[in-house]
Amino acid sequence: MQLFRAHVLVCGGTGCTSGGSQEIRARLEREIQANNLENEVKLVITGCHGLCEMGPLVIVYPEGTMYTHVQPDDAAEIVSEHLLKGRIVQRLLYKEPMTEEQVPHYGDLPFYKKQHRVVLSNCGYINPEVLEEYIARDGYAALAKCLGEMTPEEVIEEVKKSGLRGRGGAGFPTGLKWSFCRNAPGEPKYVVCNADEGDPGAFMDRSVLEGDPHRLIEGMLIGAYAIGASEGYIYCRAEYPLAVKRLKLAMKQAEEAGLLGDNILGTDFSFHLHLKEGAGAFVCGEETALMASIMGERGMPRPRPPFPANSGLWGKPTNINNVETWANIPDIIRRGGEWFASMGTEKSKGTKVFALTGKVQNTGLVEVPMGITLREIIFEIGGGVPNGKKFKAVQIGGPSGGCLPESQLDLSVDYESLTAAGAIVGSGGLVVMDEDTCIVDVARFFLSFTRAESCGKCTPCREGIKRMLEVLDRIANGEGKMEDLELLERTALVIKNTALCGLGQTAPNPILSTLRYFRDEYVAHIQDKKCPAGVCTNLLTYSIQPELCRGCTACAKVCPVGAISGEIKKPHVIDTEKCIKCGACMEKCRFGAITLG
Amino acid sequence: MVIKNLDDLRRLREETKQELEGRHGGETQIIVGMGTCGIAAGAREVMTAILSELAKRNLRVTVLQTGCIGMCQREPLVDVVRPGEKRITYGNVKPGDVPRIISEHVVNGRIVEELVVGKIG
Question: Which of the residues A83, A195, A353, A461 could staple to A204 if both were Cys, CB 3.0 to 4.6 A apart?
Answer without folding.
Answer: A353
